Amino acid sequence: MSLEEKLEEIEDFEEAYYSRIQDMKDMSNVDRKIMKMHWGGVVIECLVKYIIVEKYDIHKRNKHKKCQWFSSNAENILKAKEQSGENITNSDYSNNAIKLEDGHNFNTMIKEILQLDTDGINEDLENVYEPLGKKFIDLRYEIEDLELIEENYRKWEESYNKVVEWLNRELDNLNGELE
């Protein structure tokens, strides 16, 4: 299978982030806290993926293993191998990819892929990733339990705002480095 058949364009995580954050603003007057905690995690996930794409100049991903993302440099290495007449093996793809094993685990992406210093923000990251003791992505199946939610929501909202601000500062720092 050729490189062109194996790779596809990566999603536009910048646009996804801005769209999802607007959704959160649109929900500000809605009293659906489970929905906000779930969607807030999606906002953070999109922002983290946007930062990864920017930092590593990623444009492509493996069509069949969507967790394998390729920087422009990695794509050029694979193209050179293909143009020389060599077959590109699964290990070539794997060895040149940035791997997102759990596509929703923004904590792992922050620590292992972006390698950001999370001192001082770790607890907030955990609060947003696992509100109510469950991963944010799994809250889409959760029933509104007002007593449980009330004691956790304020803490979650404070953590969410801190994480969004922190990640936007990290993005600004990255953009300053890339200029």
Q: How is this fold's topology laid out?
A:
Elements: H1 3-6, E1 7-9, H2 13-26, H3 33-56, E2 58-62, E3 68-71, H4 72-83, H5 90-96, E4 98-99, H6 106-113, H7 122-129, H8 146-178
Antiparallel strand pairs: 1-2, 2-3, 3-4
Helix pairs in contact: 2-3, 3-6, 3-8, 7-8
Summarize the structure.
This protein is 61% helix and 8% strand. With 179 residues, it is an alpha+beta fold. It has a four-stranded antiparallel beta sheet.
Broad structural category: alpha+beta
Oligomer: single chain
Terminal Cα separation, in Å?
A: 37 Å
Indicate the radius of gyration in whole angstroms: 18 Å
Strand content: 5-15%
Walk me through what this model shows:
The protein is of the alpha+beta class and 179 residues long. The chain has eight helices and four strands. Helix 3 packs parallel to helix 6, helix 3 runs parallel beside helix 8 and helix 7 crosses helix 8. The protein is elongated, with a radius of gyration of 18 Å. The two termini are 37 Å apart.
List keywords for this structure.
8% strand, 8 helices, alpha+beta, 179 residues
